Every structure is written in structure tokens, then in C-alpha cells.
Amino acid sequence: MISLAFHHDRIVAATISDGGDFVLASDVATPDGDYRGWLLAARDAVDALGDGTAAMKVAVALPAIVDEGVVSFTPLATIGQSNLQRDLQSALGREVGLYGFGDCLAAFEARDMPKSDTLVALWIGKSCHGGIRANGARLEGAHGAAGNWAHLQLPSPVPHELDGRHCWCGRSGCLETFLSESGFEDDYERITGERHDAASIAAAAATGDIVADSVVQVFEDRLGRATATIISLFDPQMIILGGMVPLPERLETRVPRKWPGYVQINRTKTRLAVSANGADALLKGAALLMSGKN
After folding, report:
1. What pLDDT score does 31 carry?
2. Contact 10, 30 (CB under 8 A)
3. Same domain for 264 and 128
4. Residue from 24, 130, 43 nearest 94 by CA
5. Rg (alpha carbons) of the chain, rounded to whole number
6. pLDDT of 153-196, one tens digit each?
7. Residues 224 and 131 both lie in one domain
8. Does the pLDDT value for residue 52 go beyond 80?
9. What is the mean pLDDT of residues 12-28?
10. Distance CA 23, CA 106 (A)
11. Per the structure, how many domains does the chain have?
12. pLDDT of res. 294
């Protein structure tokens, strides 16, 4: 199986064995504002894997909602509203399956869970995405949008907390504007006037930087409110976080402490965990979904 992951600035490709291991990998930059260029970049990424992959199907992980092969509600404007499945199949000459980042993360992380359990996966990156597994299967919904948590409004905002939080989707106050990489970086910049990447801010917090630590604390509080809403809606056994998660071990402990103030449950049994698999989970999860193994 070949898996592709479409990111904001690159396409990552990998050949994945039946056992779920990477065999080969490639990485190509994506052109700006050119849909045909994206298709050609995907073809280049696949071709770089070698002639031995010629008969393989292609599973694609996307930061998007996918419904019947059509891509929508994606920050990748170049591929938005396109029938990417049809066009990729034509460009690659192979069968192609498209899956949202959240669904891919959920499929990979649910592989060893009891099928009776419900898992909600939250991908946090330059954009945010979600996926739901229930009774051993992916929950797609009527429009392929199940788990699209990032474009709910931040719950229980304090005065002025929603001010200036304009989202690429056209709305304001979306959770993505607070909990994405850029939202995290924006909070630091509002306080300091300086722009640093999310990893640097998290590293500074880990070494005792008071300002960086305060930004992480606010992130934890907002994530607590967001995940409490998910518990109220789906009552899952597990919430799994993937992507950019600052100070994951601390977050796994602190965020559940926020839940009692927002859920109508006496003793919360839901577990919160951070995926240890990074972006690899997207590629492997897409392959699982394409193969029908999860």
C-alpha cells in the first residue's frame, strides 16, 4: 500500500507493508496556487518510491472533509471543492482513497482497542481535525463531517476571549483559532510582541519561562473546555490527541482536571492520551482505512 499525506507545504509519501511498517518514503514540496501542480507533485512523490510499487493502491490523508471523493472545508484552498479522488486516480493511474486527518489518526490509534469502545481523535496542527471510532468502525456521518470539532465555537468563553479570532472558514471564535499551532503562536505573540514557533514556545515553558508557561496553561484550559464538550456529546472511552501537543505528559494529567466543571458526570472515566506516533499515524491510518482493516 502507498500512503500520501497532504500538508500545507509538502506531500509525504510512503510504502507501507502489510504489517504496518514503512518500507520507503519520499517528500516533495507543493506549488503555490496551482491545482494541477499539486496533482503532479503527488505523482512525483509516488514515482520516487520506485517501480516496485506500480500495482499498489494509494491512500491519501488530507486536512479536509471528504464526501464522495470531493474535498471541502480545507485550509488548502488550492484543492478545496475539487473532486480530488477522481483527479488523483487519473494522474496516478491507480485506485485512490481519500480520508481526513482525524479519521486517519483515529483508525491507527484504535487498532488495539476493544471494538465496543468509542474513541475520538483530535489532530492539532496548522489546522485541526477530528475522527470518531464507534463499535469498531469509522463514524462518517451524512456528509463525511463527523468529528469536525475544530469549527465549533470555543465553549464557555470569558469576556473578550473570542475577540479577533477570525478563522479561515469564514466564521469567528472557532476552536481551531485557539488550539492550532498558529493559535498557540498567536497567543504568545499577543503577550510578548514576538513570533516564535510552537515547538520553541513549548520548550521554553518546559525550562521555566513564565510567559511561555502561561501560554501553555491557557492552551490546557481551552483544550479542557473543548474535550469536555466532546465527552458530553459522545461519552467516549478514549480521547487521543495527535500533532502539535505542547508538554504532552503534563497535558495528559492537567486537562482531565478541567472536565468536572463542564460535564454532567460524577466521576469521569474517559481517558486522555497523546499519540506517540506523530505524523506517521496519518500515513498508517490512511493505509488501514484503504485496506479495510480498520
Report:
1. 83
2. yes
3. yes
4. 43
5. 19
6. 999 999 999 999 999 999 999 999 999 999 999 999 999 999 99
7. yes
8. no
9. 85
10. 22
11. 2
12. 66
- 44: CB partners within 8 A, 6+ apart: 28
Q: Which residues make Cβ contacts (< 8 Å) with residue 167, sequence separation at least 6?
A: 151, 173, 174, 176, 177
Give the number of other Cβ atoms within 10 Å of residue 29's Cβ.
10
Q: Tell me: do 189 and 232 sit in the same domain.
A: yes
Bridge partners of 272?
Answer: 239
CATH of the domain at 236: 3.30.420.40
Residue 65 is part of which domain span? 2-100+281-291
Residues 237 and 123 in one domain: yes
pLDDT in tens, 200-227: 999 999 999 999 999 999 999 999 999 9
Return the pLDDT at 19: 76
Q: With contact defined as beta carbons under 8 Å apart, do 189 and 195 qualify?
A: yes
Same domain, 91 and 212: no
- Counting every residue, how long is the chain? 294
Interacting residues of 105 by C-beta distance below 8 A, sequence separation 6+: 121, 122, 123, 129, 131, 240, 242, 275, 281, 282, 285
CB 110 within 8 A of CB 237: no
